[in-house]
Design a protein that fits this description.
Elements: H1 3-68, H2 71-79, H3 82-88, H4 91-97, E1 101-106, E2 111-117, E3 124-125, H5 129-132, E4 151-157, E5 160-168, E6 180-187, H6 190-200, E7 203-208, H7 216-226, E8 231-235, E9 240-248, E10 254-263, H8 265-317
Antiparallel strand pairs: 1-2, 1-6, 2-3, 4-5, 5-6, 7-10, 8-9, 9-10
């Protein structure tokens, strides 16, 4: 193999190796940076969805507190006067508040009012037995050791997840002793989830932890969430990324898996940037390869080839008076 071919091969291998190393490092750095930004953005949107959920619970708690900390309620829980029921516990009132359940429990454990409401028609229906089973003094809902303790969050019922707020019944000044507990709740149904999604401008999905057949992506993260990981971020495909987190019930047990799905413009921009970088590296590598070989050809290879031709000519003719032509003042000319 001639020196020219060897030089061309070595230069090509060096440029290809350098290109591969630069490409791998660039992709790792650039796409890694875009991935971190994408993860941070997804984390923030998961937190926004949790904040919207917490805000919904807080609004329910405020309403329950307004009704529970009221002299009229404080008197009613003892005397059960019909006027209070006619004025406050009507279908129109519960429809305005969007309630699914309403319960007044005396401090003795006696159920004074227990009403259920259809979430669509808001007509009165029997309170679900699954919820009535919690209306006992031993249940967390009715325990308020320090006034004005409240119990808020979600409960898993066969009928669906129920957002609840349980407040001790006190005077309008917030004085006790508590005469019982007022409980308000509404189901975390598809309509409410849609409102939360509209409020946060994300694609929001919620699944129960105890669902036997979860969608595949929910099932894949359930065990990790159970181990205590607060938030899991994973791409669903090249166009959608999802963030998952756990919502615990009022008893502290995992109740719901909340998923936020987002488009991936950050990832797409990272891919475009990487492609442009790849093209730039190819062009630069080609230019440097050509320039390097041209300079090597001009300064060394061509001169060495000419010297080899002259020496071969002298050797062939045997005319020792012929001289090789010399150009330059470097080692090769010497």
């Amino acid at each position: 193999m001639t020196l020219r071919k060897q030089a061309l091969l070595i230069i090509s291998l060096i440029i290809v190796g350098l290109f591969i190393m630069l490409y791998v490092s660039s992709v790792t750095i650039v796409m890694g940076g875009f991935s971190r930004i994408e993860d941070q953005n997804t984390h923030q949107n998961v937190q926004r969805a949790l904040d919207a959920y917490a805000d919904e619970v807080a609004k329910l708690n405020i309403t329950a507190g307004d009704w529970a900390t009221w002299d009229a309620t404080y008197a009613f829980i003892e005397d059960n006067n019909q006027a209070y029921i006619d004025e406050n516990v009507s279908e129109a009132t519960t429809a305005r508040l969007g309630l699914s359940v309403l319960a007044y429990i005396h401090s003795s454990g006696r159920i004074v009012i227990s009403k259920g409401f259809d979430p669509e028609t808001m007509a009165s229906i029997p309170m679900p037995q699954s919820f009535r089973d919690h209306l006992v003094l031993s249940d967390l809902l009715l325990q308020h050791p320090q006034l004005p303790d409240d119990v808020t969050g979600v409960m898993l019922l066969p009928e669906g997840p129920l957002l609840v707020a349980a407040r001790p019944i006190l005077t309008s000044n917030g004085d006790g002793p508590s005469r019982g507990t007022l409980i308000m709740g509404h189901y975390l149904d598809s309509a409410l989830i849609a409102r939360l999604a509209d409020r946060t401008h994300v694609d929001l999905s919620i699944q129960r932890f105890d669902t036997p057949q979860l969608p595949s992506d929910f099932a894949a993260v359930r065990s990790t969430l159970l181990q205590g990981t607060p938030t899991i971020i994973q791409p669903l495909d090249n166009n959608v990324i999802a963030g998952y987190t756990t919502v615990r019930d009022i008893y502290g047990k995992p109740a719901l898996i909340l998923r936020v799905s987002l488009p991936r413009p950050i990832y797409a921009q990272g891919q475009v940037s990487t492609q442009y970088q790849l093209i730039s590296l190819l062009v630069i590598a080609a230019i440097f390869g050509v320039v390097t070989f041209f300079m090597l050809e001009k300064l060394v290879l061509a001169r060495l080839a000419k010297l080899s031709t002259d020496v071969s000519h002298i050797g062939a003719t045997g005319n020792l008076s012929v001289r090789a032509r010399v150009h330059g003042k470097d080692e090769l000319a010497h």
